[in-house]
Amino acid sequence: MAEIVIIYTSETGMTKQYAKWISQELDSDCLILEEARAEDFLHADLIVFGAGIRGGRMRKLRSFHYKVKKSGWSGPVIYFATGGAPYDEQTVSDIIASSFHLPDGYSLPFFYFESGVNFEKMKGRSRAMMKMYKFIISVRKEKSEAAVGTRQALSKSYDHSRLDYIRPLIKEVQKMTST
C-alpha cells in the first residue's frame, strides 16, 4: 500500500479541516507545514499539499517547495487550495496560473475547495487585505452581480466547506497510487 502524507498550512482553520478530512479518508499522516520535518515525509510515496488562497495565490507554496527540495524528496505531489470564492473553472485556472507559472501545456494535479472567510481567526495583514479588497469592490463604477455578491460575502465570516468536495482528490490519489 502506498504511503501518503498530507502537508498543509492554515491561517483560519478551513484548510486544516480539509486536510484532516483527506487524511481520514486516506488513512494517512497529516502534518502542519511549519512543523513538518524531512523525516516526517521522506518515506512517503505521495504528498498532498494544501493551503489557502491570498491575493489569488496559494499561501506558502514557496516554503513548501523549499522544504521538500531541501529534504531531497522528489516524489509526486497533489495540490489543493481553499478559498472563499465558489468553484468555477476560471477561478481554478487563475489560481494555478498565479501560483505555479507553468509552461504552456503542462498540468499538475490541482484541486480547489470552496471554504469561506473567518475574520475572527484572520491575522492582521490578511484582515486588512480583505477589508481593502471589499473597499475596492464597493467603489468600482461597475456593479456586476459578482461584485455585489462578493461585497456581501465579505461582510461577515462564513464557512461553505463540505466533505464531499474532496471526492475528486481522493479518486486522483487512488489512481496515482494504484499502479
UniProtKB/TrEMBL annotation:
Molecular function (Gene Ontology), one example: electron transfer activity
Output the Pfam families linked to this UniProt entry. Answer: Flavodoxin_5
Q: Which Gene3D superfamilies match?
A: 3.40.50.360
Positions of the Flavodoxin domain: 5-133
Q: Spell out the InterPro entries in the cross-references.
A: Flavodoxin_CS, Flavodoxin_dom, Flavoprotein-like_sf
Stated name of the protein: Flavodoxin domain-containing protein
Q: Which organism is it from?
A: Alkalibacterium pelagium
